[in-house]
UniProtKB/TrEMBL annotation:
Residues 1-46 form the SANT domain. Its main location: nucleus. Gene3D superfamilies: Homeodomain-like. The keyword Nucleus applies. This is Duplicated homeodomain-like superfamily protein. Pfam families: Myb_DNA-binding_2. One of its GO terms (molecular function) is DNA-binding transcription factor activity. CDD domains: SANT (cd00167). Residues 1-50 form the Myb-like domain. It is found in: Nucleus. GO terms for cellular component: nucleus. Keywords: DNA-binding, Homeobox, Nucleus, Transcription, Transcription regulation. InterPro entries: Homeodomain-like_sf, Myb_dom, RADIALIS-like, SANT/Myb, SANT_dom.
Length: 74
């Protein structure tokens, strides 16, 4: 199931609100995101985000002119 821009905004806000020490963190994030997202989908989305950040920070993401023309950055 694809994530909308609004769901991604809510996800980011929820991550800022519920840190790693929050009990039932993933359940609370799923509730805040809404849209029927399950805890498993929330965790998977988080892990994908972490991998993306690691790729960017390691310099493994290259930008090309075609990315810029198409409005994409990855």
């Amino acid at each position: 199931m694809a994530w909308t821009s609004e769901e991604n905004k809510l996800f980011e806000r929820a991550l800022a609100r519920y840190d790693e020490d929050t009990s039932d963190r993933w359940e609370k994030i799923a509730a805040m995101v809404g849209g029927g997202k399950t805890v498993e989908q929330i965790r998977r989305h988080y892990n994908e985000l972490v991998q993306d950040v690691e790729q960017i920070e390691s310099g493994n993401v290259r930008y090309t002119n075609s990315n810029r023309r198409n409005g994409t950055t990855n």
